[in-house]
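Notes on consecutive records. When two proteins share a document, each keeps its own sequence and its own token line. Never mix them. Below: protein one.
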Amino acid sequence: MRYFPILQELFESDTVIFLIIGIAVSVFAGLRLKTIGSIL
């Protein structure tokens, strides 16, 4: 359990917010590319 303090620090900082935004943007971009590909 030596990783627990690191995880706690991550969750207390803004890193998680940026991580969630990054995941959401990549998923959104993937869906957009899929729809563009089907149109072409």
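Protein two starts on the next line and is unrelated to protein one.
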Amino acid sequence: MKKSMFWIVALLLCLLIGTASASVEQAGPEVCYSYSSSEDGSNPSVYFLVEVVNNGSSAVALDYDSTFSIYDASGVELDNDNLAMLPETLQPGQKGYVYGEIYAKIDNSSVISSYKFNLVTDTSPLYRVDLYEGEAVPEDDDVYVRFTNNTSETLWDTYGYIVALDAQGRPLYINDTIAYQVGIPTGQSLEYPMFFNSGLRDFLTENGMAPASYEAGVFIHEIDF
């Protein structure tokens, strides 16, 4: 019951006061929630996720200065961390997800009153990202990403990813993993195991945010000079 209260407080009191660059814009509802595996709710993880789209005319990546911060009722910053984007580079018109996780050193997440995020984009990204569709395969308590290489060449060092979505399409959880030094020949398939903390999944379900579907895919970094 305590853990449910932490979720509700976080969702009701987190205010959207962040800003986005002209080229990367919010494309869906943002989600902010806290989860603690401790019975007293101490040292919670605070998650932030939002769908974004590149509405500019060139590829963009997130700059290191992109941050996510949480505040108490007096406006005092409690903690902050950097944000990440999946995929790491967005082509014009492409959608992706910005997400962050703060391991807050606080006694209880009920002191969190608001949050803000700041997106700073880099219009000269080092990497070009080639993105491919994958299939999410839930199996018992795990989720796998299944990918078949339908290109004409062997693909190396691919990243598989999942985005867990609730019934309203809001992102709840993101994870990715790399098949390092593994090549996928044309016509062959590969499964990527994805870790999804069972305690976190139970917490989401208990608070009316059960994962209803998964978005899955595979991407590769291509260096552009």
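For the record: Residues 162 and 216 are 5 Å apart (CA to CA).
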